[in-house]
Amino acid sequence: MSTDGNPHGASITMRRLTKRYGSFTAVDAVDLDALPGEFLTLLGPSGSGKTTTLNMIAGFVDVTEGQLLIDQRPVADLPPHRRDIGMVFQHYALFPHMTVAQNVEYPLRQRSMPKAERRAKVAQALETVGLGHLGGRTPKQLSGGQQQRVALARAMVYDPRVLLMDEPLGALDKKLRDSLQLEIKRIHGALGTTFVYVTHDQDEALVLSDRIAVFNNGRIEQLGTPSELYERPGSVFVAKFLGESSLFYGTAEDGTEVDAGGLRLIASRGAHPRGSAVAVVVRPERIFLEPDGPRPEATNAIPGRVLQEIYFGSSRKLEVRLDDGTTVPVRESAGAITPIRAGDRVWLTFEPECAAILPADDGDPAEPKEPAPVAAS
């Protein structure tokens, strides 16, 4: 098992990859590449097609149409055991009657590897996941996080060039999940194997990934690095799903100007045809709250009233109801928390460089809502 950190993973190529169940299309003509040694995450809500795509790569689900290649070799007609792929599931799938070492050794025995070589590889795999001292225990004697590490060791012990992971941390509590995210990232760096990781957890995707493919309704909505997707979402869906966004709906004017219910907003990117329904998208931490009216130099200024505040320790989030009835979040870091409280009248300001204009999705309101009552200050 390689642990030199040099990429030795395989490339994965998908061209118009499609899966249908009768009249229902679960994955719709997906084009996607995983680079050798890359950590690629498939992110999306339930039913978006990400797990079906992973299962087609693994060979657990047949391909309806399209091409699927691993290192430029067609594999759609190969059974799973001939694809040189390791798999880690959410629910571990460990043999309860076997010890930790025997669980990890199992795929090597299936490959008829000599006993001495098996022992060496099992020891190395357990050391890599930090469980070298627990080889003699059974799964029921381990915590959930330890069991997931055993599953990871078993998947990588025979040196597959691709490692697939389907919601592997979904059954763990947040603190343990956060810890294992860093452990998985470390192991990926040590192995150099190509990882394809499925999750619906946006924070997990941002922490782990080299690139993220955001799935929606069986298609890839956007593909990019974590910073590209967060800083430059290509659609309202991506802006809302990957991280939190404040959305100001209106109508496109000239250039990068938007008429948002009589307010003139300017963004640095995303010009659209005049008259089209759009949303100005800003990340909540890029918005400033000003209780005494906007600064004279403020380019974008929107009035509203604070509905509630939510304290997170390292930050707090304020929900602000705009005059058109829309509610948007604003986030302040612990070192920059203002004295503003629920019920206060405020102005939201942000720089054009922090904003983008995106088409309003079909399910998003293009017209302002009726104002809703808010608490008086």
UniProtKB/TrEMBL annotation:
Signal peptide per UniProt: none
Transmembrane segments: none
Residue span(s) of domain ABC transporter: 12-242
SMART domains referenced in this protein's UniProt entry, alphabetically: AAA
InterPro entries the UniProt entry points to: AAA+_ATPase, ABC_SmlMolc_Importer, ABC_transporter-like_ATP-bd, ABC_transporter-like_CS, Mo/tungstate-bd_C_term_dom, P-loop_NTPase, Transp-assoc_OB_typ2
UniProt keyword Acyltransferase, yes or no: no
Alphabetical UniProt keywords: ATP-binding, Nucleotide-binding, Transport
Region (Disordered): 358-377
GO cellular component, one term: ATP-binding cassette (ABC) transporter complex
Recorded GO MF terms: ATP binding; ATP hydrolysis activity; transmembrane transporter activity
Pfam families for this protein: ABC_tran, TOBE_2
UniProt superkingdom: Bacteria
UniProt name for this protein: Polyamine-transporting ATPase
UniProt source species: Mycolicibacterium litorale
